[in-house]
Amino acid sequence: MFYFIPAWYQQNKWKELEQSWHTRRMHTEFDDTVKQVQMFHRSGQRDFKILLLSYTPNFRHFLHRQGVFHAPYWSCFDAIQEVKRKKAEVFSFHNLSWPEDIEFVYTPFVVVGYLHGQKYAQIEFGEAGNPIEVAMYSNGLIIRKNIYDDRGFVSATEVYTNGQLSYTDYLTEDGATKLRLYAENGNVEINPKSNTFYVIDDGEPVRRTFAHLRYDNIGEVIREVLYSHILANDNEEDIFCIAVHDKNIYAMEECIGRKKCILSFYGDRYRIKDHPEKKDLIKKASYIITDAEATSRYLIREMETDIENIIDISPYDSRMDFGISGELTVQKILVPVDGLPVERFEALMIQLASYLPQNENAMIHIFTRNATYNIEEMLLNRIADILENAGFDRRIVIPEVIDDDTEENAKEMDEDIEEIPVRFFVEQCVDELSVSKCIREQRIMVDMRHNPDLYLQINCISSAIPQIIRRETQYMQNMYNGFVVTEFDHIPPALDYFLGSLANWNQAKVYSYEIAQRFTTRKLLEKWKMVRATLEN
Description:
There is one protein chain. Helices cover 30% and strands 25% of the residues. The protein is α/β, with parallel strands linked by helices. The protein has a ten-stranded antiparallel sheet with strand order 4-5-6-7-8-9-10-11-12-15. The chain has a seven-stranded parallel sheet with strand order 3-2-1-16-17-18-19, sandwiched between helices. It has a six-stranded parallel sheet with strand order 22-21-20-23-24-25, with helices on one face. Strand 16 (239-243), helix 5 (249-255) and strand 17 form a beta-alpha-beta unit.
């Protein structure tokens, strides 16, 4: 059996709660484990299972969003709470027990319950329209919040004192308290009348007793239950693929040295230089998988030793979709800026603005994954100030607003003021779906960060558009499907090379297609099969 232990944790806590449907998504759900599970599931492989350590009461909806609804899994909190149900159930908040005189008010976002004119409850819904939380109020302050599992029962209850979280009770399907987690110090108390958890043995749940009734933190509880599960299902042929994360150190310590263990590094999720004490543990892993060549080089450098059992397998596969940029009259230039140092940001904006006069069809599309509400306004104002100080007209970034809008004055203004078209725009894309939609309209990408965005690069070769970046990567070969540019004043001629000549752009398109063939799902699965075969022999 191939086991995946993901790093699906919300704000570095042992949970991944469903997000209210009306809340702006602040982070992407996609990571290396999501893609690994997708590839195994869609390729028809059935000998794998997800070992979920986080508290995720709406996990079925998460799997559905990732397109792997039927992927097999074991949930640590299901074992702790002794939950047997597997299927999601449709239920309504109307089916809950309410006071006789309660009145429900339907707002555009939530349902609020009023009792005798006072706010009594607020019901939040997930993206699928399912109730996920019911908060209870007294004298305007929250006193309790019930968290609902998508299988149709109250999974946990948060209790508040003076509006502040006091503790959380995790419940069984029948509503009995299983354990209590205190918010102030993180201590855990096990209910002595319900001090057992489930271990799956030969496909059937078997009760085991907790070793203690008090724990310093919830991580100790999770470690005990995970270890019991691994022992009960011990097989020397099992392979564990662990997403390296602070919260997964427990799993790494239990598996490495005892089991065939793969460690999966993804971006900067876990930086070795911040955890030098874990180097010896990581060296003992059976295999190390990274998301890119750059991550592999970083690991080898930080580990200060040669690592033979390391390979980079992209968490993103290429899918040929040439997009529609060739059908548009404008030429959109995608420019990622997240994490770009101030000096580089300013130099980049100035060089992009200096290119615009020679190409009236070019438009600069600033790309950000930042989910901050007013990030678009902040970026445009910042760019306008930079360009104005450099001698450019700020109206190419922000259109001038005329206060006096009478018809007569408007005509006079039209005659006196030259109309300057806006050439700078912001693309705010948090999740991978919005990124893919954005890329389809782009003509070229300019990423001047030290490490270009991996997902953007995969989308560029999938859409077959050229890239201008600071260093050559496995997704961009210099002089073929893009240029390596380290000096900012070389950006305008590089843009002109691809945007000023359809022949050059088409040539880059051909090279992008050829590179994309190395990162198809089939190619990535071949790498996984090679790793698996190495461990099994």
